[in-house]
Each structure stands twice: as C-alpha cells, then as structure tokens.
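User: structure tokens for this one?
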Amino acid sequence: MKITMSVVTVMMALIILVLGCAPAAPATAPPAAPAPAPAPAVGSGKAGWEAEWEKTVAAARKEGELLVYMHLASEARIPIVDAFYKKFGIKMDALTAPTPDLLTRINTEYRAGVHQVDIYIGGVSGLTTQTKPLGYISPIEPLLILPEVKDPKAWLNGKLPFFDQDGTAFAWLAISSPGIIVNTDSVKKGEITSYLDLLKPEWIEKIVMSDPTVAGNAVGGMNILVEEWGLDKTKEYLTKIVQQKTVITRDQYQSTEWVVRGKTPIGLFSQSPTVIQFAQQGAPIATPLTKEPKQMTTSNGGLAILSKPAHPNATIVFANWLLSRDGQAAVAPVFGAQSARADVPAENIPEIARAVPGQRYVFQSEERSKAQDALIPEWRKILGR
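Assistant:
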C-alpha cells in the first residue's frame, strides 16, 4: 500500500507540473479584468479627464450628500436641489441666508473646528476680505475637471472669471447692480439722474438705505462714490443722507419691500438678489440711469469651496456641474441674473439686472473690495456705530 501511494503521489506531482506549464484553456478560465486604458498622449487629456470624472462621480454617490450655504431666497433653492439630485442622485442640503450671516457662520464654525459645510454661494467681496485671509477656502481651479468649464472661451470675458488673483472666488453671475431703485408709481422717470438728486427736500424721510458698514452693495456703492467724488465729498453726502432721516437697515428684504410698497419710494444700495426677486414678480420698481457709475457684479453668484469639505467628492461634482453649461442654464435663471458663461441665453433675465446703454459701469475686483472695506470705519463714524 505504501509503494502504491508513493507511485500515485509522484504521478500526481508530474501531472500538476505539466498542467502548470501549459496555457489555461479559454473555456474554463475566469473572465479577464479589463486592461487599463493606455495613458493619453500629452495634450489630449480626453481619456484622462473622463476617467477622473467617472471616478469622482462614483465616489460622490457613495458620500450621497453635500451641504451648501447660499445667499438666496429659501424657496428658490428647491429647483437647484432638484436639478442636482436628478442629474447625479446626490442629496443637496442648502442653508439660505444673506451673505454677511453666511460668512459669520462659516468663520464661527471653522474657529470651533466644525467642518460641516462644503460649498459657499454668495457675495465675494466679504468672502475674500473676511474668510479667505483665515484660510477657510481653497483654490478652485485644481478641482475643475470638465473641459467645458476650464475653457476660457466659454466665459463672457474670455477667461475664467475669478474675482481674486488666488482663484478662490469664482464669479459665475454677471449682474448690473442697482445703485438706486425707485417705486415707479411714486417717482417719475427722469426725476433722479444722480445720487445728488436724493438730497432734494422732496425726498426727506422717503429713502431706505442698506447699511454701508457690513458686506453688501452699500459698501461697494459708497466706494464708487469715493472714486467719483473723492472721500471728503462722499462723507459729506452720507452725512446729509442720514440727516434726512433716511432709514438705515441691514434687512435686505425689508429695504426692497418698503420701496415696492411705496413706504419709502427710494432705495439706496439695495441688494441685487432681493431686487431681482421682486422684479420677477412684476413689482413696480426700476433703477434709473445715473451720472455716476454702477457696479457690474457677481452679487450673490460667487462660488467658494471650503478648505475642509465634509463631502470632498460631492463638492467637486457640484462645483463642476454648477459651472457647466447645463448647470448654469438650470441655476442662473433661479438667481434671476445673467450667467457669466457666453453660451447660456439671458433673454429671461429681468431688465433691472442687465447692463444698459448710456450707463457707466465699474467691475468688481479683489483690489476694489480691499479699498472699499478700508473705508468702512469712515462710514461707522458718520452712522455712530
């Protein structure tokens, strides 16, 4: 028995050795794994970006959600949330509030070590002067994957519209900011052609003004007047406006609503998003041509990516989608403003948010934001704050 088992053992070993050297039979071999795609030639990039995009989307779906802080009316967030979920199956939670409140929240959370928010959508001036210096936002361009987003020719100014030189704030809306708004039932066309017209006796106690000591249109608007008139004349102007018992408010909705209802028929430096919202509803408001320039701004259409997003892959997917043609076509109309993309139609944008012939404009920039923020202490002195 021992001899027989030894012979069998030797024979089995020979068989295994022979089979191990022979090619495997195709019929019985398991399916081969797909061969890795060849590396793309330098300059082509197509296979590379597609593979990266698919991998990122798959990882984002595993994360399953993201949190966005945005300056937008609460109910207006719904079509954006729905469009993103329909496209990618990723749940988007959105906390809506005015830009100053959002920036305060982000700064407070990060100081406390809370990193729950992924994306910020709102004003960029305060973002780059208040939050960026703290290191709480990241450069955006390294996270852009889609070629159509990175293509300079896709954007109105022939380059990616970064607000700052470091590329942390992407200005994806192009809005004519209303320096002055009027109730068209109370103020006749042509009655106001300059900011100086607001000093006329007939407008005493009939103006509501946004607070120029916090982030928003008023800070930029006051800076424009300084550039136009000089600091001394602008300080004198603000002093006289205050003496006319002008209502100074930080409640952006209230300031525009008062103009719409005629309680104060003139609004000074009202926030664009709220003005656009009322204009879309057919409210009797307009913005007059003025001798002084107006701002061309992104208003609340600035994008920032937090430095420690809770859902990093979903963050990348959302940012790329938002800046794509499809994303802008879905989102820009919700904001009631023209996209900064050259290939997204603007025919449905309210006239009050468009650039018009005969009006001078200055464009927002990080440098201008720094200059206007440096003037805030002057406005605080006049307002007693």
